[in-house]
Design brief:
By secondary structure, this protein is of the alpha/beta class. It has one domain: Vaccinia Virus protein VP39 (Rossmann fold), CATH 3.40.50. Helix content is 45%, strand content 13%. It contains eleven helices and seven strands. Helix 1 (5-20) packs across helix 4 (54-77). The chain is globular, with a radius of gyration of 18 Å. The protein starts with a helix and ends with a strand. 37% of the residues are buried.
Amino acid sequence: MKESRTALGVAWMRALHQLFDDPPLILEDRPILELLGPGAAAGAEKMRERMQEVGPRMLRAHVVLRSRFTEDRLHESLARGVSQFVILGAGYDTFFARQPDWARSLRIFEIDQPATQQDKLAKIAAAKIDIPANVTFGSVNFEAESLGDGLRRHGVDPGRPTLFSWLGVTMYLTEPAIDATLAAVRAFPRGSEIVLTFATRQSDGSPQASLAAVVASMGEPWVTYYEPSEIETRLLAAGFAQVELLIPKQAETRYFAHRRDLPVPARASIVSARV
C-alpha cells in the first residue's frame, strides 16, 4: 500500500491557507510549510490562480475549519478530564509540532496506515522538525488487527478519557468498518469524544461530486455517504450520549465572521459525539 495522495492534498490545502488567505487565519499552521519542503511556497505560487477559484476555496475552507473545530473541542475537553488525543487517519497533520501550551499535558497519538506514516516521518526528519516527548506515531494495519488492539499496542490507555479526531476518513470506509471504529471509541470512559467528518450525497456536477470523481481517479474512491440526520442517528445508535452537528450558521458565526476570502461551507459535514 502506498502513502495516501489525498492526505497529501489536504496538507497542501492547509499550506495554501497560510499563504493565500487573509489574517487572522482560521488555522495557524506554519509547520505544514516546513513539512512540505523548501519549495512549498514557490510551488504554491504557481497554483495561485487555479487555487483561488470557487471549488478550491470551498475545499480549503472545509479543510481548515474541520481541524480548527476539532482543536477547539480538544481544548474544551480538558476541563472534563480528557488526557489523550488520538488522531485517526492523521495523514500530514501537524498538531504535534504546533501544540499550544495547554496541550503539553496531553498524550498525543497519531495513527495511520503504515505507508503514509513512514512517508510523514521521513518528511519530518528531512525538515528537522522536533517531535515533542508527549507524541507517539503509530501505524495500524486494519486488515490484521482491530483498532482497539492497535491503540493498545501503541500505548493508548483505554481507561483514560480521550478525544478522537477522525477527519476525512469515513467516506473511504464501508459501513461495517465505520461501525467498528465507533464501537472502539465508545468503549472509552465517560467524557471521551470523537470529532469526525462525513460526505453527503450530491447531484452530478456539484463541487463535492467533482471532488469525489477526482479522488476516485487517484485510486481512493468514496464509498459511504450520510445525510446529517443519518449520521446523527448512527452515532446515537452506537451509544454516544451527545451528538452535535456543526451547522453552517454556527460555522459562520464562530469562524467566518467578516471573512471575504473563504466561503462558509454550505452543508453540515462535521460532527462531534461524546461518550
